Each structure stands twice: as C-alpha cells, then as structure tokens.
C-alpha cells in the first residue's frame, strides 16, 4: 500500500508537476523557501484538509491535486469506499481535489464525485503527516490516548467504549426529556380529560349541524307550511272551479281538434300529462301537510342542541369537523401522557443497561491500557536512545477519572525527562522543538507495523538537529521506511543520502511570475545536491567527493 503518483497543477507556484513515488524512503530537498512544503500541503488536501482559494496560481481559476493511492492493505478504507458506491481498481484509487476561485470546491474518487469528508476518511487511513502542527498535536491528551490504544491494539475496544458512552448520553437525554414532558403533561392532563369528556358526551355526528339547522327552520314555520300546503291541495282538486275541474273542461275541445287534425293529438297527450301531474301534486301536498307537525317541544330540543354544538365550535372550532379533530388530538395526547410513566420506566431500564455496558468496556479498556502502558514506555525510551536522547526517560501515566468519559475511565498522559536529575514532565512543558521531533519519531518507530496508516510524511522533522544526532535520525527514518513508504522534506544531507528516491524542488523566477520545478535526482545530480546540503561548493571535487562518500556510507 503506497502513494504511487502525485500530480499538482496551478497550486500556488507549482504550475504542473507530476512525481512518481516508489516504496521505502523518499526525500524532497531544495533551498529554503523553494516550495517543498507545498507538496505536503497538497497531500493534506487528499486527507480532507481545508482548501483555500489563495492557493490557486496567479491568473488561474482553479487548482488541482491528484494522488494515485493503493488502498489494498487497508480493509477499513476499502470497505468505506465500497459502502459509498466507489469501485476500486484492484485496490487502487485516484483521489482528486479541485480548488475553485469561484463556486464550491470539489472532490472525486476514481472519477465519482464525493464529499471532502469521505475523501478525508479514506485518505487518513493511508496517509499520516507529521510536521510542527502534528508535533504539537502529540502533546494533546486525546492524541496520547489514541497513540497508546494504537500500540496496544485495542482501538476497536476504545471505539466500542466511545459508542457505548454516546448511547448512555443519548438515552439519558431521552429520559430527561420524557420526565420533563411527563411533568408538563400531568399539569395539562386535567384539561385534556375535560376536552375528551365534553366532546365525547356531545356524541357529535358529522354534518349534524347542517341537519339541525334545516330541521329548526321547518319546525319554526310548521303552521305556515301546513296552511300553504293545505290551500294548494284544496285549490287543485277540491274547490268549486278547481284547477282539475278547469282542466277537465278542456278535454272536449282538444278531442275535437284531434279528430279534425291528427297533428293536434300531441295537445291531447300533453293535457293528460298535466292532469296526471296536478293529481300527483295534490296527493303529495296532502301527505306533506299531514307530515308537518307543529311540535314546540321538539323545536326547543333542536335549538338547545344547536346552541350546544355552537358553544363547542366556539371553543374548539370553528367547524364541527375541527371539534371532532380536537377531541381526537386531545385523546391521543392524553394517551401519551398516561403512557409516559411506562416510557420513563423503559428508558430507566435502557439507561441502566447502557451504563452497565459502558462500565464493562471501560474496565476492559483500562485493563488493556495499564497492560500496554509500561511496555510502550519502555520501548519508546529505548527508541529515543539512538536519537540523541540517550539519557531520556519516557513514561506513561494513567490517572483514574471520577467517572468514565468518552475516552475511557482514565486520563492518559505522556511524560518525558530529557535531562538526568529532572523529574518527567508533560511533553509540552519539557521537550524543545527539536526534542519533540525526535520524540515523535521514536513513538512512530515503536508504532511501526501497528495498524494504519502505512504512508508517512515528515515535514522537516529534522529541524534544529545536526551532527551525529542527524545521522541517528536518518537511520531511524530509514528503518521506519522498511515495509512502508516514508516521505520526508529535509535539509539534512545525512537523511537525503539514505533515500531510496531523491527529489529536488527548485524555484525558477521569471519576468512576471515564479514557478517551482520538481525533478528526481540520480547519479551526479544527486551527488551535487548532497554536496550543496553539506555546505560545500557543488562544483569542487572535494565537495563532490565528500558527498559521494556520504552516499556510499548510507548504503552500507
């Protein structure tokens, strides 16, 4: 698993650079300010780093960083990408970040658009960058805890504990909310019971208010309706000269017309229809008159019922349908309130189970950490000896907490003493910048081979050291690169001499712009670069001989 190729276009002063990387130790050298750390910044983007439009080259509208990475040795990264619908080519993937001057920055993996967060999750599985910022990060308690867990091989146990802690917090929040709602509900329950009772007792039927309105009008006008219907029925068929009598007198003339003219037969048919219709009307008016009842008692009942429904509509309406809906909602809310005690009881049980589960993982995690702490401290102390910290002591303390937190039941702290006679202190207080670099290298040497990531980038980790210490740091990085890929930005000739691949970064000033070139060095070019790093004259035979000897010694 490695970074096979890195291509950078229009990134700050790098117009277009492509470098093909092999396994082992890869170094980037060049004059101070040449732009070496820009490549580290480009790699940081492939780990989900935050882009900035200020990194786009002058006169361009976008910058692009691409990396060809082998993920085959990281099952976690492969699973993550596959779950996100991204196919890998035998474990290989091209990660691409595009920084835009306008609009949103974009990211792709194997040509598929993705979020920067997803790229970061995948990139961090295979790429680890160490620089001044990362050295300060090692001083943080959370990073020290993560480092100890990585050494002990109990990262999954730590993740399990964190998940159980989150479950406890979530369940506790639900329980608090349920209790609050229950308390508020109890104060509201009486009102809801009244709403349910009042609306239930009313036994409302859909459309009942319209029916009652019609019935009230009929009852209120019963006398008038009886009188009109009776008079009409009388005039049609009972009164002297009734309508039906008058129609009967028309039949003779109509029959005479029909006999004289066949076409007049239609008039006879219409006449008969009129007689039949008026007969039906008279009969129905008689039935209607008998059905209409003058019932003052029923009228009072209807008006009382309408008043009751009107009062409910004023309270819960405006429509009768709204009253029914309000009743249903009140019943549902009341049911929830009445079941709140059961929910609280259930959440109480769930919280107790979650706390017990968290407690058990915390105990297991504490046991694993205490078991790993002494061995880790001993191995780091030993790893520091050849790095110019031969009399240093590295310790790991685990201070129990009052109650387990997300990170476990203890505070993990790395302590170091770089001078005999001084008690160990925290890294931030005791270690200088150069010592912190070597401490980090010692820690990484101990962690080598213990989980991900396998591609490590060191940005001027050798700052502030020289002489024999520089040789030792170079040997340590060379050893660390066995079985993995290590990229180092360096000013040390001792480190550059041990590289499996050597790239030089050169700044080329132009009339209006400055650009950076990146070239792989071999043979005499590499000798001249090492001679420069040694502080000699690249053109002199003495300097070149010194550099050649340095390179030969590194291969022994």
Quickly describe the structure.
With 556 residues, this protein is an alpha/beta fold.
Keywords:
556 residues, alpha/beta, six-stranded antiparallel beta sheet, six-stranded mixed beta sheet, 57% helix, elongated
User: How would a crystallographer describe the biggest sheet?
Assistant: 6 strands, antiparallel
Distance between the termini: 27 Å
Strand order of the largest sheet: 2-1-4-5-6-7
Q: How many beta-strand elements?
A: 15
Please identify the structural class as seen in this structure.
Answer: alpha/beta
Q: Give the percentage of residues in beta strands.
A: 15-25%
Helix content: 55-70%
Shape: elongated
Uncertain runs with pLDDT below 50, 5 residues or more?
A: none
Task: Output the number of helix runs.
Answer: 18
Mean pLDDT: 86
Radius of gyration: 47 Å
General description of the model:
The structure is a single chain. This protein is α/β, with parallel strands linked by helices and 556 residues long. The chain has a domain at 154-370. Helix content is 57%, strand content 18%. It contains 18 helices and 15 strands. The strands form three sheets. A six-stranded antiparallel sheet has the order 2-1-4-5-6-7, covered by helices on one side. A six-stranded mixed sheet has the order 8-12-13-3-14-15. A three-stranded antiparallel sheet has the order 9-10-11. Strand 12, helix 15 and strand 13 (485-489) form a beta-alpha-beta unit. The two termini are 27 Å apart. The model has no long low-confidence stretch (mean pLDDT 86).
């Amino acid at each position: 698993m490695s970074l096979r190729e890195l291509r950078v276009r229009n990134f700050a002063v790098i117009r277009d650079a492509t470098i093909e990387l092999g396994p082992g130790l890869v170094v980037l050298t060049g004059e101070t300010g040449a732009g070496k750390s820009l490549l580290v910044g480009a790699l940081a983007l492939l780990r989900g780093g935050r882009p900035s439009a200020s990194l786009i080259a002058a006169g361009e509208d976008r910058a692009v960083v691409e990396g060809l990475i082998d993920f085959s040795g990281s099952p976690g990264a492969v699973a993550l990408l596959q779950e996100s619908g991204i196919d890998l080519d035998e474990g290989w993937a091209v990660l691409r970040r595009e920084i835009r001057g306008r609009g949103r920055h974009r990211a792709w993996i194997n040509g598929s658009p993705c979020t920067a967060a997803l790229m970061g999750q995948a990139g961090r599985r295979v790429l680890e960058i160490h620089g001044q910022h990362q050295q300060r990060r090692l001083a943080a308690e959370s990073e020290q805890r993560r480092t100890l867990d990585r050494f002990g091989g109990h990262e999954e146990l730590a993740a399990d504990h964190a998940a159980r802690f989150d479950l406890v917090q979530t369940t506790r929040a639900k329980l608090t909310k349920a209790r609050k709602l229950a308390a508020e509900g109890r104060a509201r329950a009486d009102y809801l019971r009244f709403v349910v009772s009042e609306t239930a007792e009313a036994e409302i039927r859909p459309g009942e208010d319209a029916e009652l309105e019609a019935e009230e009008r009929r009852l209120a006008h019963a006398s008038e309706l009886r009188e009109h219907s009776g008079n009409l029925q009388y005039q049609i068929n009972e009164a002297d000269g009734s309508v039906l009598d008058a129609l009967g007198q028309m039949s003779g003339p109509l029959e005479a017309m029909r006999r004289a003219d066949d076409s007049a037969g239609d008039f006879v048919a219409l006449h008969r229809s009129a007689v039949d219709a008026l007969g039906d009307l008279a009969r129905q008016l008689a039935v209607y008159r008998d059905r209409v009842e003058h019932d003052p008692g029923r009228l009072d009942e209807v008006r009382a019922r309408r008043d009751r429904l009107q009062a409910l509509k004023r309270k819960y309406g405006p429509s009768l349908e709204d009253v029914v809906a309000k009743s249903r909602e009140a019943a549902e809310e009341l049911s929830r309130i009445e079941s709140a005690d059961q929910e609280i009881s259930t959440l109480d049980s769930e919280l107790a189970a979650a706390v017990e589960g968290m407690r058990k993982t915390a105990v297991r995690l504490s046991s694993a950490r205490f078991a790993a702490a002494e061995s880790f401290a001993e191995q780091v102390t030993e790893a520091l000896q050849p790095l110019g910290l031969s009399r240093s002591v590295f310790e790991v303390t685990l201070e129990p907490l009052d109650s387990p937190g997300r990170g476990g039941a203890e505070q993990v702290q790395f302590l170091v003493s770089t001078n005999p006679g001084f008690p160990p202190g925290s890294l931030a207080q005791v270690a200088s910048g150069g010592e912190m670099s070597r401490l980090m290298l010692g820690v990484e040497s101990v962690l080598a081979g213990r989980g991900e990531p396998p591609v490590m980038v060191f940005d001027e980790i050798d700052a502030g050291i020289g002489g024999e210490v520089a040789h030792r740091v170079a040997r340590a990085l060379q050893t660390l690169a066995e079985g993995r890929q290590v990229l180092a930005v360096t000013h040390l000739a001792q480190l550059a001499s041990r590289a499996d691949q050597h790239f030089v970064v050169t700044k080329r000033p132009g009339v209006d712009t400055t650009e950076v070139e990146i070239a792989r060095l071999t043979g005499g070019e590499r000798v001249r670069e090492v001679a420069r790093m040694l502080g000699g004259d690249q053109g002199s035979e003495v300097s070149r001989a010194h550099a050649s000897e340095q390179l030969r010694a590194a291969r022994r």
